[in-house]
Amino acid sequence: MIGFQMARVARxxxxxxxxWREELWRLFAAGTVxxxxxxxxxxxxxxxxxxxxxxxxNLGKVVLIP
Length: 66
Hints:
This protein is of the alpha+beta class.
C-alpha cells in the first residue's frame, strides 16, 4: 500500500471510495492487511506522540493509549 488522499477520492468519486473502503475492511477482517504501528504513547504523552509525527519520524501509525 502507498499513501494517497482518500478524502480527494471520496469527494470526486464516492462510489469508488465506497468500493475501496469495503474491500479494505474485508482484507483487514481476513487478516490479509494489518496496520503498521510505529509506537504507542500514553495519553499524557500526546505532545511527544505529536512530535514524532511532526518530525516525520514515524513509519506507521502513532497510537494514544488512554
